[in-house]
């Protein structure tokens, strides 16, 4: 009995260690690569090297890709990274990449600019973090560029950029009497006709749950990727 | 992404300009019809541009409605863009398929590229001069301006080579929107004309900080005293003010020279202290200005409704807006006694079609866009000026100007001040020569300033060696080191054939001679038999 118990405890310990090891490896950084904390602490205009996982692709043109990436600790918006069209096809959701570039800020959005990348082994798909309680709080910016969700938001207004369908849709949602600006970024998911029409047809007063990447433009301006009308 | 899309498309435009234009050759077969045929239906397509401004769209709609009422046999279908670059790209695509629009809002730089090797754009000379249907012609059903009533400086901008290929539609320039309150708080008085020295000096003084790291002038963590929206304009205007070379109409590029180095050195000095930045690096000048985080914001007069504490259009949260007095001034000058500012704004061109009646209908519509009603209505939407003296002199327009500041929307003071500034300085405006590649050169001019600004922010040394390398890099990036640039609307001198080509031609001729010799031999042989 004692032997069996010892064996079970040993196996359990081994499994626990393996699990811990797996988690640690999943977020382990290669040599010379910054942790998210180091990246967040880096000065603007500093050269940065990060490893992260592709969460969504926004656009590709002229061998430049703009993508949302994330690791288990935080998110990185990669703006116009050097990338061929063939490479862009390989950047499926979850793909691990090592990115070298310059940390920059444009109208409040912190991003990696002038970047190059290489694909590495590994895969991770983030789940949305509920940020509803952080609305209107300074701490919200700590989640910048992450996949986040907001629940029980009330639709206040919908406006098409250029006043007609075919471009971004600006969505004003409210919570507890305060308005917040969201955006259906056309380059990110405008080609999803069903989603575009759903957002375009939202009506003031409807209550929705939304999910999206916490983009920043002179304040929070999440790029929405999912809307559930309640 | 709320407003950066324009920048992306601007870059897209820059790249696509390098792709050249390979449409089919149109022969100059247009014969001016003696009369406009109203017995048959004519469909026109009009590609227009607005500034994400609902009122501008309504004015275009009104123009189409008014024109169709006068000419019921003509139907105009509009496709609306909010970016010149996208129009350009679509035109290039449609040249190759022969599906260009009839009428298109455009920039002369773009027309120069459309013209290359294709001749798809109609020269307007014959149409303009026609007694019945020309400018102010007798057979027109509306009160169009005569040639003399179009502001001469603007009319000439549409002339490429020997011909007019575009008429001006609206004109704007750049203005410096100044936080006068902060300038005075820093102990300065605004001069009559802004100079570069003044702007740099005040900007550097505004960088003084409190012990807690905030800036003394605004008590905030952020202050970029001088932000320039279009760095291509910054460089081009600087060189013009210095009477320094930039380019020639024959495609000669003179950008990479001593005076340019001087401008870049100055930019590097002030970017290093943080006193200067650009739209591409930091964001919209208007957002910083309105938040009290910028003192000198240079942007188009067509962006004036975004400028100032009481701007009718804003992109920042209300609680971030700071109260200050906005002064609208010319862009900084090197010689205030001889100010120079760039002329910009949309022009309109006609694409060549095989049916002369379709071309004439297009021309009638273009002229309709220059009538007082359309000119005045469109110019009032932003900091644009009408391109005809006829519209400017109307009681309606004069009243509009006189009501500056009477409300915060239609008569928003900053907007009308920008318009007045432009009208007062019409004679001080200039344009750069237009040729195939001139748009790429313009982008290169801006890229120099962007790269120098970025480099010093990243603690790189910007010295002569850096600038020399930068010149090489930018020349290569924009293909300015190649022989593809040249004047538009005329045959280009291509120089002698390369040796390889000569060799190939000799080889081909030789092969044909051998074939001919064999054929003759066989023929003689057969004849003998």
Give a quick set of tags describing it.
heterodimer; A: 230 residues; alpha+beta; OB fold (Dihydrolipoamide Acetyltransferase, E2P); 2 domains; six-stranded mixed sheet; five-stranded mixed β-barrel; 11 strands; B: 529 residues; alpha/beta; D-Maltodextrin-Binding Protein, domain 2; 3 domains; five-stranded mixed sheet; 20 helices; 10% strand
List the helices and strands and how they pair.
The complex is a heterodimer of chains A (230) and B (529).
Chain A: H1 2-27, H2 36-41, E1 47-61, E2 64-70, E3 75-82, H3 85-90, E4 95-106, E5 109-123, E6 129-130, E7 147-160, E8 169-175, E9 178-184, H4 186-189, H5 193-200, E10 207-213, E11 223-229
Parallel strand pairs in A: 3-5, 6-7
Antiparallel strand pairs in A: 1-2, 1-4, 2-3, 4-5, 7-8, 7-10, 8-9, 10-11
Chain B: H1 5-17, E1 42-49, H2 54-70, E2 74-81, H3 84-97, E3 103-106, H4 108-115, H5 125-129, H6 152-156, E4 159-160, E5 163-164, E6 167-168, E7 174-179, H7 180-185, H8 196-205, E8 226-228, H9 231-241, H10 258-272, E9 276-278, H11 279-282, H12 285-290, E10 296-300, E11 326-329, E12 341-342, E13 347-350, H13 356-368, H14 372-379, H15 389-392, H16 395-402, H17 413-424, E14 429-430, H18 438-457, H19 464-477, H20 499-528
Parallel strand pairs in B: 1-2, 1-3, 8-9, 8-10, 12-14
Antiparallel strand pairs in B: 3-13, 4-5, 6-13, 7-10, 7-11
Helix pairs in contact in B: 1-3, 9-18, 10-18, 18-19
């Amino acid at each position: 009995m004692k032997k069996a118990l010892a064996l079970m405890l040993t196996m359990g310990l081994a499994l626990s260690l393996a699990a811990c090891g797996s988690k640690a490896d999943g977020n382990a950084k290669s040599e010379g690569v910054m942790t998210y904390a180091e990246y967040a602490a880096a000065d603007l205009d500093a050269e940065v090297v990060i490893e992260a996982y592709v969460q969504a692709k926004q656009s590709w043109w002229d061998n430049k890709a703009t993508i949302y990436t994330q690791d288990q600790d935080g998110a990185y918006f990669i703006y116009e990274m050097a990338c061929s069209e063939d490479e862009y096809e390989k950047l499926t959701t979850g793909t691990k990449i090592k990115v070298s570039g310059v940390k920059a800020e444009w109208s409040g959005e912190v991003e990696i600019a002038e970047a190059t990348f290489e694909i590495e082994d590994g895969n991770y798909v983030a789940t949305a973090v509920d940020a509803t309680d952080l609305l209107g709080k300074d701490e919200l910016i700590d989640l910048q560029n992450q996949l986040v969700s907001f629940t029980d938001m009330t639709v206040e207004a919908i406006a098409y950029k250029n006043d007609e369908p075919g471009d971004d849709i600006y969505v004003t949602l409210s919570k507890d009497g305060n308005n917040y600006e969201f955006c259906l970024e056309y380059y990110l998911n405008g080609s999803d006709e069903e989603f575009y029409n759903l957002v375009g047809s939202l009506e003031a007063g409807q209550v929705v749950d939304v999910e999206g990447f916490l983009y920043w433009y002179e304040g929070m301006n999440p790029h929405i990727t999912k809307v559930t009308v309640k | 992404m709320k407003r950066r899309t324009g920048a992306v498309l601007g870059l897209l435009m820059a790249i696509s300009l390098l792709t050249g234009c390979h449409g089919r050759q149109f022969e100059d077969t247009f014969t001016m019809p003696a009369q406009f045929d109203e017995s048959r239906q004519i469909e026109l397509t009009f590609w227009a541009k607005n500034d994400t401004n609902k009122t501008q769209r309504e004015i275009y709609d009104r123009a189409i409605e008014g024109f169709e009422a006068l000419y019921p046999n003509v139907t105009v279908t509009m496709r609306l863009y909010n970016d010149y670059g996208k129009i350009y790209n679509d035109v290039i695509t449609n040249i190759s398929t022969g599906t260009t629009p009839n009428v298109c809002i455009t920039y002369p730089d773009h027309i120069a590229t459309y013209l290359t090797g294709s001749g798809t754009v109609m020269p307007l000379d014959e149409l303009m001069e026609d007694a019945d249907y020309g400018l102010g012609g007798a057979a027109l059903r509306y009160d169009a301006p005569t040639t003399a009533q179009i502001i001469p400086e603007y009319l000439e901008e549409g002339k490429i080579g020997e011909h007019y290929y575009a008429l001006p539609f609206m004109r704007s320039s750049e203005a410096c929107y100044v936080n006068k309150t902060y300038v005075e708080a820093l102990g300065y008085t605004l001069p009559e004309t802004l100079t570069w020295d003044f702007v740099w000096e005040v900007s550097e003084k505004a960088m003084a900080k409190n012990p807690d790291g905030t800036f003394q002038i605004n008590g905030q963590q952020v202050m970029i005293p001088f932000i320039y929206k279009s760095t291509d304009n910054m460089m081009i205007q600087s060189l013009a003010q210095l009477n320094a070379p930039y380019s020639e109409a024959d495609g000669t590029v003179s950008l990479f020279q001593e005076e340019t180095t001087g401008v870049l050195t100055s930019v590097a000095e002030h970017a290093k202290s943080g006193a200067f930045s650009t739209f591409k690096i930091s964001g919209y000048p208007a957002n910083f200005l309105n938040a009290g985080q910028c003192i000198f914001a240079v942007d188009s007069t067509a962006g004036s409704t975004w400028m100032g504490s009481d701007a009718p259009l804003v992109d920042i949260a209300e609680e971030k807006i700071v109260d200050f007095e906005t002064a609208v001034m010319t862009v900084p000058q090197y010689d205030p006694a001889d100010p120079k500012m760039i002329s910009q704004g949309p022009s309109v061109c006609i694409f060549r079609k095989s049916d002369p009646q379709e071309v004439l209908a297009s021309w009638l519509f273009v002229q309709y866009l220059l009538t007082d009603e359309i000119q005045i209505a469109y110019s009032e939407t932003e900091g644009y000026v009408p391109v005809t003296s006829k519209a400017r002199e109307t009681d309606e327009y004069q009243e509009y100007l006189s009501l500056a500041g009477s409300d915060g929307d239609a008569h928003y003071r900053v907007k009308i001040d920008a318009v007045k500034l432009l009208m007062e300085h019409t004679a001080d405006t200039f344009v750069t020569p237009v040729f195939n590649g001139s748009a790429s050169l313009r982008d290169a001019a801006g890229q120099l300033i962007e790269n120098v600004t970025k480099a010093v922010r990243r603690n790189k040394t910007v010295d002569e060696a850096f600038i020399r390398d930068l010149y090489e890099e930018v020349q290569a990036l924009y293909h300015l080191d190649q022989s593809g640039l040249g004047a538009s609307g005329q045959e280009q001198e291509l120089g002698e054939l390369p040796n390889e080509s000569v060799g190939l031609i000799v080889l081909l001729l030789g092969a044909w001679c051998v074939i001919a010799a064999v054929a003759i031999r066989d023929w003689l042989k057969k004849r003998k038999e």
